[in-house]
Structures are given as structure tokens and as C-alpha cells.
Design a protein that fits this description.
heterodimer; A: 506 residues; alpha+beta; Arc Repressor Mutant, subunit A; nine-stranded mixed beta sheet; three-stranded antiparallel beta sheet; 14 strands; 18% strand; elongated; B: 513 residues; alpha/beta; Amidase signature (AS) enzymes; eleven-stranded mixed beta sheet; 17 helices; 41% helix; 12% strand; globular
Chain lengths: 506, 513
């Protein structure tokens, strides 16, 4: 495949206005699947190890099997709809979307078509440059996920050239909510940032609701990005492509940028954009053509006769509305102000996904700056090293305790890192680790003075140097004392004592 | 000793409870009967090898003093559209030849829990598409009254099994008349319950919004006893009703004991008693009306003008739903797989499998339904059909203002000859003209014998319909008419069916000579 021509990004923006649209699929983390009582592999702790193990006759579409709607999935969908500022339909229906594909057990997908559960919403998105953008939501509807195909024998792992394909139906029937935006115009050069910020905002919302694990790398959150280019001054919408397989926030941004540059180059050369799905390749940073897609695709939708309409009571909707957590965008604004962080500091916390941890640590008594420093520093570093979530290593309560010990002078920063290491190794609370490892700062001046005397005995000229104004000469003594105390001394205090001694013996 | 196969399920139940016979004896008698006559009738696609063991287990429970349900130990035949863990479930199609489901249909589970003894699986038109059982991939079933004639369909196997005394009870499924029409042409009783009254879980779907599982028997009381076992809410079927149902057996016993229809308003549906019905069907229907009037019923004529369009709407809605329901038969997960000689893609394998695995009638309806749901045609076809359906429901509502039950012939003619209508789908479809409206509206219907047509000596059937959730009316009124008719005739209709085993015995004697 020849590498496609790309137009310079700024040049592309000069010639064209990008028009965006997103379809974000959220896998709900209900205990069971959308229409069966099989364990839902998208729920934490349910991840299956073997293919085709979390399935029932319903998920396999065996003859005679019937779907039954998961009530928890309905509640989650309503909560999500409300959090997106949508209206909730008093009556919505499932429909069958008919098409043959081996990962689709029944050869139809149960989805919502003309009567979605939620519609007409709005998501506020803040861009890195401070611009606040309102993304209008057309609808959020419920549907079931399909299984997964693995193509074996080809060079690319794709269906072309494969010898055979394996089907794993574990994912078949996982509850999904698909969130569809209205057409987004006016993003201009911010389009890639907007895309990333929008998906990030959706992720924040579902995480705040606790309705999805929202891990993009696992496909809990998937974004299909529609993009077309309108030639400046033409007012004519261009042909759109739909980029799939975008499974990280960074990819969302890169894929949009790439498509703008690719489409611009084609259009500028007098070519035409083919309406198609395109696959994003994380490794090479390009999109490639997938299935041609036209508005005339005929899925022969009709109301699913095996299911009744979904008719949530007004009481249920209001109950769920009352239980909504603070909107993530509002919460961020509130926390940033309360903590007094700089933009950079705050963004660092947000991007590390540690807002909740810092908040909880602060609530437990630590200063916001200390909490931030520990979480985004040492803890994030270790988590990254081990490939785990920072929150799985240590609790906010323990971090808060650690911070307090440092602020009280019981621990130096260096000691505190050792204590943290113990806490992360499961040795108990910071207090317990200090005790068991014997890590408390030596705060007894007598012991320090004795150590200073020892050090001076072998370096008798130091005091004189200090008196001569070469204060840095104290470093040698401090180093020797710290070594003698095995690091369990407060270096600042040692320094004070050495200087006092120099002054006293003048 | 009495021939146990001639007894009703209710009578067998009494003997079993009294300890006069064992379930093993009853089951063996029916297995023997199947062995004797099913070569001719071909009601069964599969005979259970576990039936005698099941019967023995029930006898053991009874001996141990366990409290058993009224039908415990009574054998039953199961239409092959229902999933059974211990027997193949093919729905009459090559597509599912030899397929043994990993689960039981809810109604089958209920049968087992009530200690009935499954005898085997009965023949049917492929995926329940047909009115003669000639569309079975495994060959037709023959009518016990005349082996050259069809037993109705799609549930011809279940109807023939009870009419030929191969089983006292059977389960059927009724999408447009597949229980009631076979009952009419075999002199048996069949009930399509209110939509949602009986679970569809494990019934291989034809048209989800129309399908309903129900009893096939020789008496109204037996149907009621079986309905009591299989009915009720099933959390695995979202369209299943949560109603508490009254005892249908009690209603049937009351109706038969009273033989009175005093105060019952019986509505004769003008549109379901029209031209083109066989003369003997007309005359027997008129006699039944007279008999009911003489027993105190008030006979009123009601009109349901939209019924005229019922068959048109039905042949859009059914194929549309079926085209989607049958999409799962693609060779990937279960059932037949046909790989083209040249190999090919999964799409090629799917296409070859469906080409080889589906019969002509199935293909016809899948194509029809696919077309009806297509973009640009949806509103004109599926959309209009749904509107007709609403009108038919309104007609029923209006008719039930004037009448407690509605009546019509259960089929326009007696059984026709095998092959007679096989090449004329439209003529075949018209067989269900009187039964289809009940499915479109979701109301319950019952077919029961109303006498032999004078011109051909073959059974005719009457259909009762009641408002949704009022199945109990069918049993009360149906059992009263059944008792009145039998008093008038001096015998049951089914007792006049030819004794098929005579042919076998004569053949055996000849062989001996």
C-alpha cells in the first residue's frame, strides 16, 4: 500500500473546515450481560481467561433462546442519559439490526433504532487552550456487543489472506450504550484536541457514574470518529469517513489530525473522498480503508418482537437523577479552585487520572500540594513501572498519614519514600512500617552532636573553613553524619548544629 | 384388559393414581402402538429411548408416597419445534438434523417437573411453515382417518399422534393455526393460549409476535389439564404474562358437568363463515350452533370487517419476523454445514448451507420477509400490516362487547389429499383463514371436533375464541359443547377413527399363513 499523501495541517485548515461527529460505545459493567444471565466480561473481576466461557444459549443465539433485558443496564443507561443532559424517553424500543457476520450470533444485533432511551443532550468540553466547547448529543441508545474474530494464518492478522478465523462469543451480549453526537462544526484547528477532550469527558462521566470500567485499551470505551472537510466558502458538506479502532485518547487526537491531512490532500488534488470506515493503526499512525459504507446500507430494522418496550417510571428517572454525582466538569472546576493548583499542576493530576485520589487524600487531612506531589510523583512512577493503577498500590488515607509524618518532621523525604515502599509492599500503614523498619528520624540532638563530634575529629579543619566563610565545607560533615545515622537524620537539623558549633567555637 | 391407548389422559390419571396401572404399563402400551402404526402415520421423528426409564422413575416416586401432579406418569408427544436436552430438536428441517440442544424449553422442563413421560418428537412442516406437514424435511405425516390425506399443519405430527392413539397428549405450537387446524382435520382438540400465557423459551421461533405453545389432545379436559401444567409466567420470556391463571381443568369439568350454556353469548363471526367453505363444514357448524342455542346460549352474529385483510397482513408479518429469526441458521455455531467444493469464504459457506438446508417453503418466506423489511418497502408492507393488525385487534374488542366467545369453523375444509395443494402456496395459505385472526390479536382459540362431514366422512372442527387472558371461557364453553355433541352422537368422534392396527395385524396374519 502506497503511503498516502498528507497535506500540512495548517495549510489544510486554511483550505477546509473540519466537521466532526462521534459515536462512542461504552461497555457497561453490570454483573450480567444485556440480554442473558451470563457473567459480563466487561465488569471488573469478570474478565474471562478462556474463549467461549462466558456464554449461554442466548449469547450463542441457539434456536429457541430468547433475550431478557438487564434492568441494571437500563438504570445505568438512564443515569448516563441524564448525566449527558439528555431527555429520557418515557417509552423506548429495541429493534433488530439485521446483517450476516460470524461474530454476530443471531445474525441480527438487538439495538435501539428510531426510539432511543435518551436523546437531545449536551456535554461541556474544555480544551487544553482553555476554550470551552459545547458538544450536542443527538442520542444515547442501548445495544448488545458482538463477539470477537481472530484471523489466523495471514500476515496481517486481518481477514484478508487469513486461512481461517476463530470466533470468541465471550463479548457477545455485553451491554453497550452508544452515544451519538450531532454534527460538530466550528472546532477548526482545535478539532483533534476537541476529539480527545470529548472522549475524555465521556470517560470522566461514565467513571463518575461507576457504570463502566472505561478502559479504552480493553475496548470498554470505543470511539468511532466521523470527519469530513468543507471547502472554505463553499458551504458544501464533504463526504465523511468513519475511523474505527481508536483505542486511546492520544489516538483519537492523532487519528483526527491524520484524517484532516489525508482528506485535504485528496481534495486539493481534485480527488473524491470515499464514504467508508477506516481503521486506525496505532503503530504506524495511519488509517487504512475498511468497509465501504453508504447511507443506503439496509439493515432491515424492525421492532424486536421478543422484547417489550422499555418504560421507566417517572419515579425511577427522578430517583436516578437525584443520585447523580457532581458533573465531572463542575467538579474539576471546583477542585482546581479549592486546591489553588496551576493549570499545569492540575492537568497533570487529571491526565494521570488521579483526581479522586488527590481529593480523598486531601479530605483525609493532607495539603493539596503534598497529596499531588506524592500521587503524581513517586506513586505514579512505581505504578507505571509495575503496570498497575496507582490506586491499587496505596490508599489515600495512608498517603495522608505519610504526608503528616513528613510535615511533623518525623520523616525526611527520603525516609518517607522508604516508608511508602513498605506500605506499597503491603507491610501496613506508614506508622507500622516506620516501626517495623525502624525508619524514624533521629531527632535527639545529643545523638546528632555525638556524631558531629566524631566527624569533626577526622576533619578538624572544617570549622575553620566555615568561619572563613566557606559554608559549603559543612557538607562533608553533614554527609558523614547522615552516613553514620544511616540516613535517619534530618539533614537540615544536622546542618544547623554544625553551623552553631562553628559559631560557638569562634 | 382395556386398551390403555384408547383412554384419555384424565382417565389414565385416575387409574395411575388408583394404582390400577403403572406408568411403565401405560408408556409401554403407547410405545407398542407407535411401533405398530407409526410406520404408516409417521407422526414421530424421534421416539425416546428413555421413556420407560422415566415411567419407572415416576412409578417409584408414587410407590415411595411422593405427592404427584394429576398428569404424573402420563405419556406425551412433543412437537419437534421444542428444545429437548435428551432428544434431537430439528423443527422438521435438514438444517438441524441430529441437533440436540443443551437446554430444555421451559414447557418441556415443566412437563418433566410434573412427571409426564416424553415419548418422542413429532413431525411438522419445516420451521412450522405449512398447513399440511408436507413441508417436513423428513417426509409427510399421514392423517389417521385416511392415510392418503394430510393431517393439517404445521403440527400434523402432534395431531396425528393423538388421533392415532400413539399418545394421549401432545404439545404443539400455533403461529397462524398450527395447533387448531390440524385438530380440526384429525378430529382432535387443540388450544392456542393467549399470547404470553405459555412460555416461548425453547420453542424454535417462527414469528415471535405470533407463536404460542399449546396442548393437543383428544378431549377438552385433557387440554385443560395440560394447559394447567405448561402455563404461567417465565422470567426467560419477556413477553410472558405475569397473570395468575385459574385452573382450566376445573373450568372444563364444570362445563362438561353442566352441559349448559345458559346466558353465554356466542358470537358467530360473519367474515369467518363465508363462501368457499366445504358444505359439510357449513352444515356441522350450523348444527353445533343449534345445539348451543338449545343449551341456553344466545347466538349473535358479529362482524369483524378487518378480518378480510388478516391473511394478507399475516403473510407480511410472519415472513418478516421469520426472515430475521432464521438468520441464525448459518452453520457457524450449530447445525448443518455445507462447504462449497471450491472452498470459499464464510459467506460462501453460509450461502451454501442455507441453500442446501432450507426447503422451498422456508426459502419462499425468507425471501418474502427480507423484501418486506427492505428500506423503501417497510412502510408499505410491514408498516401497513401492523396497522391491519391494530384494526383486527379493534374488531375483536368490538365483537367481545357483544359476545362472550366467538365461533367459526376451525378450518374451511376437511383434510385434503397429500400433494393436492403442495404446488399452490396460496391455496395452502387459505387453510388458515379462520385461525389467523386470533394470532394477530393475541387472543386464545380452541379447535374441537364438531362431527364428520357427510360428503366424505372426515372430521370437521369448530373454533372458539375468547378475549385475551380469558382462556378459561374456552374450556368452560368448549367442554359443554363437547359433552352435548357426544350425548347427541352417543359416542366420541375419535372413536370412529379407523383402527390402523388392524391393517398391521392382517398383514402379520397373512405373513404367518
Amino acid at each position: 500500500m502506497a503511503k498516502p499523501k498528507l497535506m500540512d495541517y495548517d495549510k489544510a485548515l486554511e483550505l477546509f473546515e473540519p466537521v466532526l461527529g462521534f459515536e462512542v460505545h461504552v461497555e457497561l459493567n453490570t454483573q450480567t450481560k444485556m440480554f442473558s444471565d451470563a457473567p459480563n466480561p466487561a465488569a471488573a473481576g469478570n474478565e474471562p481467561h478462556e474463549p467461549n466461557t462466558t456464554i449461554t444459549p442466548v449469547d450463542l443465539g441457539l434456536p429457541g433462546s430468547l433475550p431478557v433485558v438487564n434492568e441494571q443496564a437500563i438504570k445505568y443507561s438512564i443515569s448516563l442519559g441524564l448525566a449527558l443532559g439528555c431527555s429520557i424517553a418515557p417509552s423506548s424500543r429495541f429493534a433488530r439490526k439485521n446483517y450476516f457476520y460470524p461474530d454476530l450470533a443471531k445474525n441480527y444485533q438487538i439495538s435501539q433504532y428510531d426510539e432511543p432511551i435518551a436523546f437531545d443532550g449536551n456535554v461541556e468540553v474544555e480544551l487544553p487552550n482553555g476554550r470551552v466547547f459545547q458538544v450536542e448529543i443527538e442520542r444515547a441508545h442501548m445495544e448488545e456487543d458482538a463477539g470477537k474474530l481472530t484471523h489466523v494464518g495471514g500476515a496481517t492478522g486481518r481477514i484478508q489472506g487469513a486461512e481461517y478465523s476463530l470466533v470468541d462469543y465471550n463479548r457477545a451480549g455485553v451491554p453497550l450504550v452508544e452515544i451519538v453526537t450531532k454534527m460538530i462544526t466550528g472546532a477548526e484547528a482545535d478539532a483533534p484536541d476537541l476529539a480527545k477532550a470529548y472522549v475524555s469527558a465521556i470517560r470522566d462521566i461514565v467513571l463518575s457514574l461507576g457504570i463502566s470500567e472505561a478502559k479504552m485499551e480493553r475496548g470498554n470505551l470505543r470511539c468511532d470518529a466521523n470527519i469530513s472537510l468543507t471547502p472554505r466558502g463553499s458551504g458544501q458538506l464533504g463526504t465523511r469517513t468513519e475511523t474505527k479502532n481508536v483505542n486511546s485518547l492520544r489516538s483519537v487526537e492523532r487519528a483526527i489530525r491524520y484524517e484532516i491531512q489525508r482528506q485535504a490532500a485528496i481534495l486539493a488534488d481534485g480527488g473524491t473522498i470515499i464514504q467508508e470506515t477506516r481503521h486506525w493503526h496505532e503503530d504506524t499512525g495511519v488509517t487504512s480503508a475498511g468497509r465501504p459504507k453508504s447511507d443506503a446500507d439496509d439493515y432491515r430494522y424492525f421492532p424486536e418482537p421478543d422484547l417489550l418496550p422499555v418504560e421507566p417510571s417517572v419515579e425511577l428517572i427522578e430517583e436516578l437523577r437525584a443520585a447523580l454525582p457532581e458533573a465531572p466538569a463542575l467538579r474539576k472546576r471546583r477542585l482546581k479552585e479549592a486546591w489553588g493548583f496551576t493549570d499545569l499542576e492540575f492537568q497533570d493530576v487529571v491526565n494521570s487520572g488521579l483526581l479522586g485520589e488527590v481529593e480523598a487524600t486531601t479530605a483525609a487531612g493532607a495539603s493539596a500540594q503534598s497529596a499531588r506531589k506524592w500521587w503524581t510523583g513517586e506513586i505514579a512512577r512505581v505504578a507505571n513501572e509495575r503496570g498497575v493503577e496507582p490506586s491499587s498500590l496505596v490508599s489515600p488515607l495512608h498517603v495522608s498519614e505519610l504526608v503528616a509524618m513528613v510535615e511533623d518532621g518525623e520523616l525526611t523525604d527520603r525516609l518517607a519514600r522508604q516508608v511508602l515502599e513498605g506500605v506499597m509492599a503491603g507491610e501496613g500503614s506508614p506508622g507500622e512500617v516506620v516501626k517495623s523498619r525502624g525508619l524514624a528520624v533521629v531527632s535527639d540532638d545529643g545523638a546528632l552532636i555525638a556524631a558531629i563530634d566524631d566527624a569533626l575529629a577526622s576533619q578538624p579543619d572544617v570549622l575553620e573553613k566555615i568561619r572563613d566563610g566557606k559554608v559549603q565545607a559543612a557538607g562533608a560533615v553533614i554527609g558523614a553524619v547522615m552516613k553514620a545515622m544511616k540516613g535517619q537524620a534530618d539533614a537540615a537539623r544536622v546542618r544547623e548544629l554544625v553551623l552553631e558549633r562553628a559559631a560557638a567555637t569562634e | 384388559m382395556t386398551d390403555l391407548t384408547r383412554l384419555s389422559a384424565a382417565a389414565l390419571s385416575e387409574k395411575l393414581q388408583a394404582g390400577e396401572v403403572s406408568s411403565v404399563e401405560v408408556t409401554r402400551a403407547h410405545l407398542d402402538r407407535i411401533a405398530a402404526v407409526d410406520g404408516d402415520v409417521h407422526a414421530f421423528l424421534h421416539v425416546s429411548s428413555a421413556a420407560l426409564d422415566t415411567a419407572q422413575a415416576v412409578d417409584d416416586k408414587r410407590a415411595a408416597g411422593e405427592k404427584l401432579g394429576p398428569l404424573a406418569g402420563v405419556p406425551i408427544a412433543i412437537k419437534d419445534v421444542l428444545c429437548t436436552m435428551d432428544m434431537p430438536s430439528t423443527a422438521g428441517s435438514r438444517m438441524l438434523e441430529g441437533w440436540v440442544p443443551p437446554y430444555d424449553a421451559t414447557v418441556v422442563r415443566k412437563l418433566r417437573e410434573a412427571d409426564l413421560v416424553p415419548l418422542g418428537k413429532t413431525n411438522m412442516d419445516e420451521f412450522a411453515m405449512g398447513s399440511s406437514t408436507e413441508h417436513s424435511a423428513y417426509g409427510p405425516t399421514r392423517n389417521p382417518w385416511d392415510l392418503e390425506r394430510i393431517p393439517g399443519g404445521s403440527g400434523g405430527g402432534s395431531a396425528a399422534a393423538v388421533a392415532a392413539f400413539e399418545a394421549p397428549l401432545a404439545l404443539g405450537s400455533d403461529t397462524g393455526g398450527s395447533i387448531r387446524q390440524p385438530a380440526a382435520v384429525t378430529g382432535s382438540v387443540g388450544v392456542k393460549p393467549t399470547y404470553g400465557g405459555v412460555s416461548r423459551y425453547g420453542a424454535i421461533a417462527l414469528a415471535s409476535s405470533l407463536d404460542q405453545v399449546g396442548p393437543v389432545t383428544r378431549t377438552v379436559l385433557d387440554a385443560a389439564l395440560l394447559h394447567d401444567v405448561i402455563g404461567g409466567h417465565d422470567p426467560r420470556d419477556s413477553t410472558s404474562l405475569r397473570d395468575e391463571w385459574p385452573s382450566f381443568a376445573t373450568a372444563a369439568r364444570e362445563g362438561a358437568a353442566s352441559k349448559s350454556l345458559a346466558g353465554v353469548r356466542v358470537g358467530v363471526v360473519k367474515e369467518l363463515n363465508g363462501d368457499g367453505f366445504q358444505a359439510g363444514v357449513h352444515s356441522r357448524f350450523a348444527e353445533s350452533l343449534e345445539l348451543m342455542a338449545s343449551a341456553g346460549a344466545e347466538i349473535v352474529e358479529v362482524s369483524a370487517p378487518s378480518f378480510e385483510y388478516a391473511i394478507n397482513a399475516y403473510y407480511l408479518i410472519l415472513p418478516a419476523e421469520a426472515s430475521s429469526n432464521l438468520a441464525k441458521f448459518d452453520s457457524v455455531r450449530f447445525g448443518l454445514r455445507v462447504t462449497p467444493e471450491s472452498g470459499g469464504t464464510v459467506e460462501d459457506v453460509m450461502a451454501a448451507t442455507r441453500a442446501a438446508g432450507f426447503g422451498d417453503e422456508v426459502k419462499r418466506r425468507v425471501i418474502l420477509g427480507t423484501y418486506a423489511l427492505s428500506a423503501g418497502y417497510y412502510d408499505a408492507y410491514y408498516g401497513s400490516a401492523q396497522k391491519v393488525r391494530t384494526l383486527i385487534q379493534r374488531d375483536f374488542a368490538a365483537a367481545f362487547e357483544q359476545a362472550d366467545v366467538l365461533v367459526s369453523p376451525a378450518a374451511p375444509t376437511t383434510a385434503f389429499k397429500l400433494g393436492e395443494k403442495l404446488d399452490d402456496p396460496l391455496a395452502m395459505y387459505l387453510n388458515d383463514i379462520t385461525t389467523i385472526p386470533a394470532n394477530l390479536a393475541g387472543v386464545p382459540g380452541m379447535g374441537l371436533p364438531m362431527g364428520l362431514a357427510p360428503e366424505d366422512g372426515l372430521p370437521t372442527g369448530i373454533q372458539f375464541m375468547a378475549p385475551a387472558r380469558e382462556d378459561v371461557r374456552l374450556y368452560r364453553v368448549g367442554s359443554a359443547l363437547e359433552a352435548l355433541l357426544e350425548d347427541k352422537w352417543g359416542h366420541t368422534l375419535i372413536s370412529r377413527a379407523p383402527d390402523l392396527s388392524l391393517g398391521e395385524e392382517f398383514a402379520a396374519m397373512e405373513g404367518a399363513v
